[in-house]
Specification:
Helix content: 25-40%
Number of strands: 7
Radius of gyration: 16 Å
Shape: globular
CATH architecture: Alpha-Beta Barrel
Order of helices and strands: EHEHEHEHEHEEH
CATH topology: fumarase
Strand order of the largest sheet: 2-3-4-5-7
Distance between the termini: 23 Å
Number of helices: 6
CATH class: Alpha Beta
Largest sheet: 5 strands, mixed, barrel
Number of domains: 1
Length: 186
C-alpha cells in the first residue's frame, strides 16, 4: 500500500488533477466546517448576490459539527457527517471555486457532474473516529453563523488529517469501483 500523500490547503488545481480515487491523503492547513443549515445559508447568500464569509476558491469544507473541546484542545470529537445532505447545496459552491469536500457516504450524480466540471474532489474521513480526528486539529475559530452552535462555520487548522479520495475530478467513484471489484471476484 502506498504512503499517504501530504497535501496543503488551499488546494491548487495541480494537486486536484493529480489526486485519484483511492489515494490516501493527509491534509495540512486550514479547512472549513459546515453542515446542512450553514450550507443552506451560504447558497441563499450567493443567490442574493452576496459574498460567502470565506473565499471558496481552492478551499475544502469538512462536513462536521464538532463537539465542545476538552481543555487544551482546539475541538472536541469531530467525525464526518453524511454528505448526501449537502448535495442540493454543493454545485453552487463548486461553481464558486470550492475544490474539496470531506464527509462520509456517496454523492449524488449532480454533485459528481459538478465536481468533474469544476475540477474538484470528494474525500471520505473515517466515521466513528471523531475523537481521533480531532487530535489533528490545532486551531479553531467560528467565522460565521455562530447562532448554529456546533454547526457554525469554523476555520480549523489541521496537521496530517487523514482522508481518502472517493470521487476524483475525472468522475471515478471508489464506492462503485470497490463494489464492482467484489461483485466480479470469484
Amino acid at each position: 500500500m502506498n504512503s499517504p500523500l501530504r497535501i496543503h490547503t488551499p488546494l491548487s488545481e495541480e494537486v486536484v488533477l493529480r489526486l485519484k480515487t483511492g489515494d490516501r491523503v493527509l491534509f495540512n492547513g486550514p479547512i472549513y466546517t459546515a453542515r446542512d443549515a450553514a450550507h443552506q445559508r451560504l447558497v441563499a447568500l450567493i443567490g442574493e448576490g452576496g459574498e460567502p464569509p470565506f473565499d471558496l476558491r481552492g478551499n475544502v469544507i469538512y462536513y462536521v459539527g464538532p463537539a465542545p473541546p476538552r481543555p487544551g484542545r482546539a475541538e472536541g470529537s469531530a467525525g464526518p457527517t453524511s454528505s448526501y445532505r449537502m448535495d442540493p447545496y454543493t454545485p453552487p459552491l463548486l461553481d464558486r471555486g470550492l475544490k474539496g469536500m470531506i464527509g462520509k457516504g456517496q454523492r449524488g450524480p449532480e454533485v459528481v457532474r459538478s465536481m468533474i466540471a469544476n475540477k474538484a474532489v470528494y474525500f471520505a474521513a473515517t466515521g466513528g473516529a471523531g475523537a481521533l480526528l480531532s487530535m489533528t486539529m490545532t486551531a479553531s475559530a467560528v467565522i460565521a453563523y455562530a447562532d448554529l452552535g456546533p454547526e457554525a462555520i469554523r476555520r480549523i487548522t489541521v496537521v496530517d488529517f487523514p482522508a481518502m479520495v472517493v470521487n476524483d475530478c475525472y468522475g471515478n467513484d471508489l464506492y462503485r469501483q470497490g463494489r464492482a471489484h467484489y461483485e466480479t471476484a470469484d
